[in-house]
Amino acid sequence: MTAPLHSRITGTGSHLPPRRLSNDDMTAMLAARGIETSDAWIVERTGIRARHFAADGINASDLALQAARHALEAAGRTAADLDLIIVATSTPDMVFPSTAAILQHKLGVAGCAAFDLQAVCSGFVYALSVADAMVRAGSARCALVVGAEVFSRILDFNDRTTCVLFGDGAGAVVLEASETPGILASDLHADGRHVGILCVPGTVSGGQVLGDPLLKMDGQAVFKLAVGVLESAARAVLAKAGRTEEDIDWLIPHQANIRIMNGTAKKLKLPSDKLVVTVDEHGNTSAASVPLALDVAVRSGRVQRGDTVLLEGVGGGFTWGAVLLDF
Ligand code: UT7
Questions:
Q1: Which CATH number does the domain 6-178 belong to among 3.40.47.10, 3.30.300.30, 3.40.50.920, 2.60.40.10?
Q2: Ligand 1 within 6 A of 37 CB?
Q3: pLDDT digits (tens, 9 = 90+) for 84-102
Q4: Is 257 a catalytic residue?
């Protein structure tokens, strides 16, 4: 089999668990713990208006399954067509095996390669880049790439600086071998010097969780780094693809904070109507945020076939990256 020249997204899907908490719901929940926050603070500082939390017993693989079904349907494929499944997640169902293997079983198939990829909020962009490379190398022809998270499980509801920011959800794409270009270029980075600014420092040992199993973030440090790296990754991926800012039809950055997203669009001189924003409705869903936003933009008719889309991720590690594609 000769390797195809390109990979292309043939379908998108997403899923939010039904339990929706508005900022007022969060304010009431925290007030019961003697902690003060408000809709006004959360909206002004982040742009978030609501987040969705999965019910007890619902895991990342369950959210991934719903998103995957939608993406397969949109691509006109069934799970039997898949020869690769990658799930980007930092909140896997188990320590092992991978959420991707669990998802494969829930999809009712067996045999194809399946693994998880851990790059926190950059996870989907990393996973898409890896799947693209595998398709172009000829080792897969029809890949399912998912970002799925249940961050509600690792939030410290006594820490108002983090617990109001995150939510649960999943997004997925089907990526297929193609004679016409889809993924144009990708640009991935990590800098482990910044491990401590965004982490869940706990670990499992001797049948116990050692250390703190809840999310810690130095929000200001993450903010400052994010603004810089999102601009540099955008410029790098455009240069690799031989394109310019004017060629971008849609910017879909990691949905963490509207101020970071607007700042990135401004640096790239993109009008705000080219920026896809869904953070208001689901908060920061980590690896799920980019494919969630992509699917919303596709299903609402904004992102059309042939549009040039810049996807960007940034988060714990510190990790960051961009994928430029023709949809
Ligand atoms: O997913 C990976 C990427 N993650 C991100 O991109 C997150 C990046 N960081 C951020 O988005 C922002 O830094 C935050 C949203 C986390 C915080 O916004 P900020 O404008 O940097 O606020 P701050 O940390 O400077 O806090 C300002 C004030 C503080 O009070 P004082 O010290 O000025 O009296 C905080 O204690 O806001 C207070 N504060 C809150 N007030 C009400 C912090 N959290 C809350 C809250 N409600 N939930």
A1: 3.40.47.10
A2: yes
A3: 999 999 999 999 999 999 9
A4: no
Does any ligand 1 atom lie closer than 6 A to the CB of residue 218? no
Is 121 labeled as catalytic in the residue annotation?
yes
pTM of the model: 0.97
37 Cβ neighbours under 8 A, 6+ residues apart: 23, 26, 27, 30, 160, 164
Best mutation site among 44, 161, 218, 285 for ligand 1 pocket (most ligand atoms within 8 Å of CB): 161
257 exposure class (CB count in 10 Å sphere: 0-12, 13-18, 19+): buried
CATH number for the segment(s) 183-326? 3.40.47.10
pLDDT for 4 equals 78
**Which of 223, 262, 319, 320 best tests ligand 1's pocket when mutated (most atoms within 8 Å of CB)?**
223
In whole angstroms, give the CA distance from residue 154 to residue 150.
8
Ligand 1 atom 17: residue of nearest CA? 219
Looking up tokens 């040992």 gives 205
Q: What is the pLDDT of residues 68-85, one digit of tens each?
A: 999 999 999 999 999 999
Q: What is the pLDDT of residue 3?
A: 73
Q: Which ligand 1 atom sits nearest the alpha carbon of residue 222?
A: 8
Backbone region of residue 200 per phi and psi (left: phi > 0; alpha: psi in -120 to 50; beta: other values): beta
